[in-house]
Amino acid sequence: MSDTHAASVPYVRDTMLPQNAPPSTAQGPVKWVRESLFSSIPYTILTLAALYVIYLILSGFLPWLLGGVWTTSNIRECREVLDGAQAGCFSVLTERWNQLLFGIAYPQDGYWRPTAAFVLLFVAVAPVLFGNLPRWLILFTVLYPFIAFWLIWGGSLFVPLSALLAALIGYVIYSRIVKKSFAGAFFAGLLAGGVAWVVFSFITPQLSGVLALEPVASRNMGGFMLNMILGVICVSLSLPLGILLALGRQSSLPIIKLICVVFIEFIRGVPLITLLFVANVVLAYFLPPGTNFDLILRVIIMITMFASAYIAEVIRGGLAALPRGQYEAADSLGLDYAQAMRLIILPQALKISIPGIVNVAVGLFKDTTLVSIISMFDLVGMIRGPILASTDWNGVYWELWGFAALLFFVVCYGISQYSQWLERQLQTDHH
Amino acid sequence: MNKSVFFGALTVAGLAAGAAAASTLDDVKARGKLNCGVTTGLAGFAAPNANGEWEGFDVAVCRAVAAAVLGDPNAVEFVPTTGKTRFTALASGEIDFLARNTTWTFSRDVDLKFDFIGVNYYDGQGFMVPKELGVSSAKDLDGATVCIQTGTTTELNLADFFRNNNISYEPVPVETNAEGQQQYLAGACDTYTTDASGLAATRATFENPGEHIILPEIISKEPLGPLVRHGDNDWGDVTRWVLYALIAAEELGVTSANVEEMTTNTTNPEVARLLGTEGTLGEMLGLEADFAKKAIASQGNYGEIFAKNIGEETPIGLARGLNAQWTDGGLMYAPPFR
């Protein structure tokens, strides 16, 4: 027996073989290449064709990009330097970058001001966008509009300060009354703030030299800064307005409902460019001559109206998607309308609406380039007008438009990535 | 009720606008700045440079008016306007003066209620062809494909020209000048047609401008001039005579370089009247006696402005042609300063 056993020893393992790495053809990049690129004949053909196309594009694009000229002072010198070679003339960017970013008339020694406002913007929106940051940061968010206004437009610090004070007074009044009635408190707060603002506006002119930055008129705003100003202000204003409109459209009070429906349907039925022309051209006829109703303000109002009508419809979709039971649950808890909306309905409805809202926000940001048609020098207006019309740079298209596309892509892609992250954060279905 | 309120408001706005328009000169003086409408950018005529300062042929007229009225060529607020917004900007009082390569036509003068104060550039529609096509006259273009901007008067002029000469063509419609430029360079059409000054400016941006020629035929009249609102004749006179002062200065040999010297020791009585050492011409306009001198000193005479911005020494490279002085066979002709 034991003999047999002894004889069989060479053929029986008493230990496990150590694990071997899989063969090189079945792991890592080789496997990936074989399975996803060359798994069958048609795939192989497609892969080779795609590689060829990529090669064609890159072999044209990379020399153009890397061989570009950055230091000449006009297109004729560019052509001399390139001497017939196909490469970009990026000198236009190095010479006119300040106009592309800040417009033609913003004081050059003041470029740090919009830049600072831009950097602070991230600090200000962070507590709104990311829920896990300390809550006291929201205080800065509240202060940010006043700081940014002071930085970008300049003038005395007392102007935004008095606006802040007026807003504070309005808020205090509101919070005193809000326990009794939401609507009453809302309008009382608005009224108090307005009165305070009017009172302050008698005082601030006397303090115009105090703590003042060099004032910059609105018509001197331009470049990508103008797109950012319009985009940020209009998105942040149109969101609350859109929520109000969406709720108003569902209201049981016929007058409020009618006003909201008419507003939304009218605005959605009119192209944005028409509204901009109204802001620029038609209002100029109606306003008494000499009234200097700021063009940027007019444009902000129009774009905000336009965007809020669309956001209202997106949010209405979110409200409609909520099961009836949620409304009834809120009622059965004894919550009044404002509480039910704030605590139960809107958080859910807004979550559903995120993709739609982001869609509107991205579209709105790109639509800000339409102001170039009413002769404002935003990024696109800057390129189409002054830069391409100068004798120095007429004929440089790809470099300029590529730069504009890059700036817009970065912002829009950022917004879109944030919204996808937010959707993952708010996903509660699988719990 | 609502309607009457609406029209009431319109009337008030109109009256107020009329009241303000009745004294543009006083408004400008009180404001200390001239609001001047210009294009958003046209090579050689108006465009901001790298420092954001506006320069160009039309811009120089704005600055000359500001120098004459306010004594400072930089006291100008340039308001960029597009082809669509320019007329409302002027009519609504947003700008005092529009110098934006605008063609003087009957309906703009009469129906839109503007006053053209003169012509600072006589333009006309022309053709550009590649040299290798071997064409030397537009009449040789029988059967040619023509790149043409749609919806413009150039489209109609083109049809008229070819019908008059009994030859045929095939239009290639394009939307903008930039598109026309690209189509033409890509060989999508044999010839590109638009205003001759535009053709020259376009050609100047080509990599090899020498390979393209602009044919001698000019097939339409496009007198480009600055304009003001109808009904404020005092302001119209001021701007008109500033423009004529620039033109007359060239004829009389007054330049920005010698204007000081001419003021003190000229023997020509017309020069003396122009520069304000004799007579009361400035006073009649409600300006200082030396208004023309200030305009000329700051911008130069018409010929200098032309040469500096669009003349043959610049990349635009336009010849004087019709815009030469009448003494040189052109159309520039200032009425006497008397």
From TrEMBL, chain A:
GO terms for biological process: amino acid transport. It is found in: Cell inner membrane; Cell membrane. Keywords: Cell membrane, Membrane, Transmembrane, Transmembrane helix, Transport. It is a multi-pass membrane protein. InterPro entries: AA_ABC_transptr_permease_3TM, ArtM/GltK/GlnP/TcyL/YhdX-like, MetI-like, MetI-like_sf. Its main location: membrane. GO terms for cellular component: ATP-binding cassette (ABC) transporter complex. Signal peptide: none annotated. PROSITE patterns: ABC_TM1 (PS50928). Coiled coil: none annotated. Residues 224-419 form the ABC transmembrane type-1 domain. The chain crosses the membrane at residues 41-66, 111-129, 158-174, 181-204, 224-247, 259-283, 295-315, 370-389, 395-415. One of its GO terms (molecular function) is transmembrane transporter activity. Pfam families: BPD_transp_1. Belongs to the binding-protein-dependent transport system permease family. HisMQ subfamily. This is Amino acid ABC transporter permease. It comes from Sulfitobacter litoralis.
From TrEMBL, chain B:
SMART domains: PBPb. Keywords: Signal, Transport. The keyword Transport applies. One of its GO terms (biological process) is amino acid transport. Residues 33-262 form the Solute-binding protein family 3/N-terminal domain. SUPFAM superfamilies: Periplasmic binding protein-like II. Pfam families: SBP_bac_3 (PF00497). InterPro entries: Bact_solute-bind_prot3 (IPR051455), Solute-binding_3/MltF_N (IPR001638). Belongs to the bacterial solute-binding protein 3 family. PANTHER family: AMINO ACID ABC TRANSPORTER PERMEASE, AMINO-ACID ABC TRANSPORTER-BINDING PROTEIN YHDW-RELATED. This is Solute-binding protein family 3/N-terminal domain-containing protein. It comes from marine sediment metagenome. The lineage of its organism: unclassified sequences, metagenomes, ecological metagenomes.
